Amino acid sequence: MRVLFFTLLLIGLSNCSVPKVMNQSGRVTPKGQVTGGLTYMGNVSQQTTVFVTDAIKNYSEAFSPGDTANYSPNLENANAAIMAYTLDPIAFGPQFYLRVGVWDRMELGYTRGKKANMISLHGQFLGFEKDPNEDSKKRWFGSAGLQYSWNKFALPSYFGRVQSRLGYSFARNDFLIPVTFSYSFGPNEKHGALGFGTVIGFHSIDYSFKPEKVFTGNGVELKPVAYQNRFGSIGFFMNMKLGYKFIYLIPSISVYYQNYGSYPLANGNSVELKGFTFVPGISLQLTSFGNWSKREY
User: Fold this and answer.
1) Backbone angle region of 54, left / alpha / beta, with phi > 0 → left and psi within -120 to 50 → alpha
2) Strand partners, 215
3) What is the pLDDT of residues 21-32, one digit of tens each?
4) CA nearest neighbour of 192 among 256, 283, 262
């Protein structure tokens, strides 16, 4: 039954997570060119999986609508599960991205995944291209970037009864700093590349509760509260870019670890959260024809 429940839950979850797929190579989009594509990604959080499959299931089964509710242990566990989910959701779905070479060794990008948005800036510090000679056929490239994303969303409908009872709202801002190296398959990644690297994240969280007729065991009604929190993360990733000149398929995997810290719940108690997150993805990437006629391989 637990496996069936978890499977049905995953089907009902849509992608509202931070764009954390790392499908870039060490070679940024050349000046004057445009790359873009569609990514289907997953976001599987170790900590969220535990809370969602236990606490939300137990509370939803015991929930009975009414004018008032007691902040029971089941509701407190569900409250903790909501926090875990919004910090790092279990989610699957598409993301669209576009990258433009705006300067030599510099690209500007935009990514959209449901209600999550991200803008990025990547600069290339390793590898170069010029008139065909031995130097232009170097195979190693490296780049570093800054990615900023923002997200404000409601919980999936499965959480509806819990969210409406607690009056929960949530917003976040995220900064990711990836450093990427890649080994080119052919000069200047003509046939693709093997990419890998590391990423550091800084995350800002704002959330609030406006409980609707929820009382403690002593009969005290819970009051509206608002909180802020900050935490960091570190991750490692690998991807494989395969194709030819204008079209590529890019499978990728990223693994993150984060200590989210301590988060006050609606009744003032706190929950400590930390753990790993796994982000698999597969991207179909297209490259514009601009400048390709001037570039030799």
Assistant:
1) alpha
2) 70, 221
3) 999 999 999 999
4) 283
